[in-house]
Amino acid sequence: MQTRYGKLLIALFCLMLALPAVAQQAPRAEASTGTHLFQVVVLIGSKEMAKPSTDVPDNARAAIEDIGQFLPYKSYRMVDTALIRSAGQGRGVMAGPDGRDYIVQLRYTKTGTTGKIFVSDFELLDPSRNANPTLIQANPTLIQTSFEVDLRETIVVGSSKLNGGGEALIVLFTAVQ
Amino acid sequence: MTNHRRPQRDEIRELLRQGDPAGSDTALEADDVARMRRRIMAEAATHRTPFFRPMPTFATAAMVVLMLVIGWTFLRSDDPVTPVESAIESDRRTRQIQFSTPGGTRIIWLLDSEFEV
Q1: Which of A31, A176, B24, B114 is least crowded, fewest Cβ atoms below 10 Å from its Cβ?
Q2: Domain-wise residue ranges, chain B
């Protein structure tokens, strides 16, 4: 009887040692099969008339035409576009205006079986702000928000001054697949 | 020339029997065997192992609990995401509004007092 319990304890101990390895393998398997592709398009909206960008992706162009009738900006200039494939969180470097680099990073979860994606953290950062001592607020965050999006839906995330004047930074976020 | 004869098998058996110190003992009687058996069975019945043994059971339960705790800790600590520092500072006034265009495009707009392209 004693040896039977001893064997049981040894088996449980071995199982305990193997459990962390199994736990580490599980997210990897999910990551390899549960990735999503996101398209991020950065635009500058301006109240000045300008020649519209011609290299805008089709889905972004449709969204621009839609918001163009709604927002007080007369022209939209595309700054950069990026595709981010991610399995829960992603990060990419995009070209910003005036030769600066923007960093886009996101974290998301798939909500249930409906195909909806909850982006719990979406951020657009300008790291050069940290290095600029003339800025009173050396905060690199340009946009930070969260939202839910359907597959193949485009969400418009914009930022401007409180009075909406001047230029606006606009991100078209599409859950491609 | 000396002629060595190899001993036969029967002779070896006989020699072994002669040298066996217990060879002259007689077997136990059937009554003695039965009495010994009853005595042994009675002693075994009085010292039977109880069905519930607290120490091994508690040790097993403790091992299972420890295994679950360690597994849960690894599952919880597997998230490599580092917390992102809040981007909104106390004196930075931001306001977020959400609306949809007539065409159905959803818009999230951040009004930021410190906004600068």
Answers
A1: B24
A2: 78-117
| Residue pLDDT, tens place only, A87-144 | 999 999 999 988 889 999 999 998 877 778 999 999 999 988 776 656 555 678 899 9
Evaluate if residue B51 carries a pLDDT over 80.
no
Cβ pair A125, A103 in contact under 8 A: yes
Mapped onto helix, strand or coil, the DSSP state of residue A83 is: strand
Has this prediction a pTM greater than 0.80?
A: no
Question: Which backbone phi and psi does B94 adopt, to 5 degrees?
Answer: -130, 155
Is B111 in the A-facing interface, judged by CB distances under 8 Å? yes
Contact between A146 and A119 (Cβ < 8 Å): yes
Q: Judge whether B92 is closer than 8 Å to chain A, CB to CB.
A: yes
Contact yes or no for A154 and B87 at CB 8 A: no
Is A128 in contact with A113 (CB distance < 8 Å)?
Answer: no
**Which residue, chain included where needed, has tokens 């036969």?**
B8
Summarize the confidence of residues B59-80 as an average pLDDT: 80
CA torsion A24-A30-A33-A39 (nearest 10°) is: -110
ipTM score of complex: 0.74
Query: Whose structure tokens read 């597959």?
Result: A151
- DSSP string across A145-171: EEEEE-TT-EEEEEEE-TT--S-EEEE
Q: What is the DSSP letter of B100?
A: E
**Could you tell me how many CB contacts below 8 A there are between chain A and chain B?**
127
- Between CA B76 and CA B91 the distance in angstroms is 35
Three-state DSSP class for A58?
helix
Taking CA–CA distances from A152, the nearest residue in chain B reads B105
Cα distances from A144 to residues A43, A135, A137, B99, in angstroms, run: 16, 19, 16, 17
Is pLDDT above 50 for A163? yes
* Rounded percentage of chain B residues whose pLDDT exceeds 90: 11
